[in-house]
Write a structure and sequence with these properties.
Blueprint (H helix, E strand, L loop, with lengths): L1 H10 L12 H13 L3 H21 L10 H8 L5 H7 L2 E2 L1 H12 L2 H9 L9 E2 L1 E3 L19 E3 L8 H13 L10 H4 L4 H10 L5 H10 L7 H13 L1
Parallel strand pairs: 1-2
Antiparallel strand pairs: 3-4
Length: 240
């Protein structure tokens, strides 16, 4: 399956130009698979395409992933039928940019991380970078609709530090302070079926839980780590 995903990405250059901010879900799922199967090279190449195109499209204020799930909005945006106020509304927030920054940190893509981080007060100055974190109440709504509407907490605006090392330490501090629940927030994870959480997120358009990548971030760029091992590491750091 990982080979199929790599082939899909390499044979479809448009995969580097997501059009909805919500595509952060699919991108994270794909990168999660590539990391788990040791395909760091393909993952970093794809990240480079996505990251540089994000910079280009946001700088031009054209072709960027819109903060809307409406196909009508996208069509009107691409057709140039929206006034400046509506265009600004479609770019006023992004979960995809911080998602890419985190995956850069996980894969050790320092060049792209530095580029995106350095443009926070330039290209992304008017874009609120944010991420949603599920909590203990999320499990009750995870399998019946977009869980972010009824639970969890949003971190916004996010200001990324200058280095990946600082980002890793900041996440260690959050876990040590129990600021963010670990993966045991989900009953499926507690029973060994973490994949159900990810399937539900994609189906109901619930944001990809950052707790999944935080676990890998804390372990470092260990492509051989399984999701279960990463979850165990996260719990250990959180309880330590």
């Amino acid at each position: 399956m990982a080979d199929a995903v790599v082939a899909l990405i390499q044979n479809n250059p448009s995969s580097g130009s997501p059009r909805f901010d919500g595509h952060a879900i699919e991108i994270s799922l794909a990168l999660f698979l590539l990391l788990s199967t040791g395909k760091e090279g393909a993952a970093k190449a794809w990240l480079s395409e996505i990251g540089h195109r994000l910079v280009y499209s946001f700088r031009r204020s054209k072709g960027f992933p819109i903060a809307s799930d409406s196909l009508d909005d996208l069509v009107e945006f691409d057709a140039g039928q929206l006034d400046e106020a509506k265009v600004q509304k479609l770019r006023h927030l992004s979960t995809l940019v911080p998602t890419v920054l985190y995956w850069c940190a996980i894969f050790g893509h320092k060049e792209l991380y530095h580029l995106l981080q350095s443009l926070q007060s330039d290209v992304f100055e008017d874009v609120c970078l944010q991420l949603w974190y599920p909590d203990e109440e999320t499990d009750a709504s995870l399998y019946r609709g977009p869980a972010q509407r009824e639970s969890g907490t949003t971190e916004a605006p996010i200001v990324f530090p200058a280095t990946i090392t600082e980002l890793v330490q900041a996440n260690r501090d959050l876990l040590a302070q129990n600021t963010v629940p670990d993966l045991s927030f989900a009953s499926a994870v507690r029973h060994g079926f973490f994949g159900l959480v990810l399937m539900a997120c994609r189906h109901f358009r619930t944001p990809f839980p950052p707790q999944f990548w935080t676990a890998f971030l804390l372990r470092g760029q260990d492509a051989g780590a399984t999701a279960e091992q990463a979850a165990s590491e996260e719990k250990r750091v959180g309880s330590g």
